[in-house]
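User: Quick one: structure for sequence A, then sequence B.

Assistant: Sequence A:
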Amino acid sequence: MRRAPEEKQRDPERTKARILQAALEEFAAKGFAGARVSEIAARAGVNKQLISYYFGGKEGLYQALTTRWQSEESAFADSSSSLGRLLAGYVRFNAERRDFGKLMVWQGLTDDGPPDPAFAEDVRRDLEALRRRQRAGEFPADVDPAAMLVALFSMAAAGISFPQLVRAACDLDPASPEFGEYYAEQLDKLIGHLAEVTDP
């Protein structure tokens, strides 16, 4: 039995999903500081009170998007694959879901404070995983895993952070699937070559 339109509008999960998508678009376009709850509500076709009711305001929306990102990340970030393939997965995701990448870039541009404790804990886990990969020979022993992690994040976000560079260097649209696939393959090769480098 099909629901009447007014019943669909009352579906809390569908409404929450619409609000989250609108928030992602608004945060990606303007950053957390520039985003307005009224604009998010207008994008989602709801009143502002529903955002407060479901998410507790702008901060709650941002936290819900962080949780959503972590859930989606677990679907493509296969830690059993090579480091190059893992990085390629992030590149492909950033090409397909640019708003999430823009969200992180905005945060980096506007947040000079200490890292969120949950994010810092994630980074510590990532560093330990990189140390294990280093011991397994996936990249040279004289490269600091912390610097490697920063480089990997930067490479994965290059199509979002430096679109003008992508257009000039690769003659590709950084938002296109063609660039995402090309760049993912190239980084997979590049990181793969690090395993071939022997210690001096």
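Sequence B:
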Amino acid sequence: MSTSSLSALAEEQLGLARTAGSGRSARTVHGGAGTSLRQTLVALVAGQELAEHASPGDATLQVLRGRVRLVAQDRSWPGEAGDLLVIPDARHALHADEDSVVLLTVARR
């Protein structure tokens, strides 16, 4: 078993996002090829987004820092540090209202 500090990793990813031309950075912290669960830290600077995309399976977003909006179809769900958002089984996008870090958990089918 290994232990990771999500706070330290979140700070690292946010620093990388702030210097990246895309305004975002991501790092898988658990899972990978051949596993049924994957967890990825995603950092977005204010005003950036992950464009609309499909979900590969059941998924949640835990907001670690900042404020985000999850958008799917005609609905929007706000999230701030400490919130857990269930990602709908539909095409969706994620917008950062301020510098933010989320933990994306995906159960792959």
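DSSP finds one helix and nine strands in the chain. The first strand starts at residue 24 and ends at 30.

User: Thanks, that's what I needed.
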